[in-house]
Amino acid sequence: MIGAVAAAEPVIPTFGGGGGRSCEQANELFCWGWVDRNWSDVLWPALRQHVELTLIAVVIGFAIAFVLALIAYRHHWAERPVTIVTTVLYTIPALALFELLVPVPGFGLSRTTAEVALVSYTLLILFRNTLTGLREVPAEVRESARGMGMTPRQSLLRVELPLALPAVIAGLRIATVTVISLATVASFVADEGLGTPIFQAINNDVFKTELIAAGGLAVALAIFADVLLVLLQRVLTPWTRVRAG
Amino acid sequence: MPLPGPRRHATSTSSPTGGSTALELELRDVAKRYPGQREPAIPGLSLTVPAGEICALVGPSGSGKTTALRLINRMVAPTGGDILLGGRSVLDRPANELRREIGYVIQQIGLFPHLTIADNVAAVPRLLGWSRDRIAERVAELFELIGLDAGEIGERYPAQLSGGQRQRVGVARALAADPPLMLMDEPFGAIDPINRTRLQDEFLRLQQLVGKTVVFVTHDVDEAIKMGDKIAILRRGGVLAQYASPDEILRRPADAFVAEFVGADRALKRLGLRSVADVALEPWDGVRAPEPSIPRGANLRDALSELLGTGGDLVVVDDHGAAVGVLTLAAVSALIGDDRDDEHDRHGVGA
Fold it and tell me: What ipTM score was computed for the predicted complex, to two decimals?
């Protein structure tokens, strides 16, 4: 309730700005004044870095997982080792993985370390979903593609991959939301992303406004990214929405 | 519904749709042996399908009829013998190219769920690199040919069509590049009986127009009799038991296996191939009431059923309902009897 009252503050022309300070000093639930003053220096840069961290991790993770899935699709034997390795990576606790990577030469406290860890969490989901999507292409569809004279490559590009898209995008949604969430922890090794203000708030006697603002931005970003991917799927896979007429 | 009369396949092999001609298909001792199996799936199959004819390939499960079909477009690689299409071996060129020239229809159809019906039909022309205009023209032509409304159906996805519509689209897709040969593997097997009959009739009508060489696999003897200009019956182990016209196979089954396979009612089935017009009719005296009547186009199997049902003679009427003669039970049995004694084989093509 206090937050709601405070929320009106930046909208109403203030009388000097003193009121905001007292809100922060009282560590009330949420102080819009603080957000307003720290948006361009703290929150916005952190949000941008967070988007960058996420995008890089998902793009690289997808590239690796996609290639691995194609290999496993063509060569069954590849599925087990890839599954084992990616599952192990997935199960390592995030914090532990970050700390494990820091002493590795070339890594240290850097964005690279953060990205390597984040990428490793996307692999299992993206690999599994892409492979499942490809495997679930109906046998008769593959048969008719081959029977009409498509080369394996044409069949893959024109038939199998398009049909695997819904599963691939479903994987991207999970991976993206996961990475957005995990990237807050990545500020342990790289002073970047929304994790930075969150840890700052925790270290600052749990400064509620900053904690809620940064955490809320991470949640909002996750929802936004998810909606974006859902829209992408609707555009790319119109056939999945038709019903028998 | 008018019953289909005796069928004549197109004598001309050129398609009115302005494309390629139908080609003769010849299987020369074609064999398929799978590694590690003692018995070959197909020990050596030889048969010739003349250009523009439908060959119904029929047999019990395990007779290798689908394997035989798939050898022709090299979905299964032959391990022996040769396959000639229009006198040219299909084995000496890339399988993908070959398959683009052979229409292929399978029971599950395998339409591409992510493509509209128009794009499904356009699939092979796209592979062949046709121009956009030519493809659009051909697709429109095919929609007309199969009797579907391009405007209404063309932009839909396969999931929005009924089973019968999907099957028609499957046939249209296979015909898209006007192939000289069509391979059909139980194409109507998953359709309910009423729609199956309609699709069969439609396909025969279509075949009158396009005159393709067709190999039509089915496990259903009645379908084989209906669809085939000739029927190739395979026995278990992939051996050809008989290859002849439906009439010949019903009249003179090559052996006990064929006789059993075509069924004890083969005399009746043969009558199903003939129409009332084939019988020597008694003249109509003009006095007795033209009742009960039967159209001269009706097949003799139905006519016999009517004769037995009414217990008397039937007045045969022409398309305008005018009486043209009287059909008697004696005339029908005489026809069967004549055939039994017939030394000269009218349809007469042996394997």
Answer: 0.81
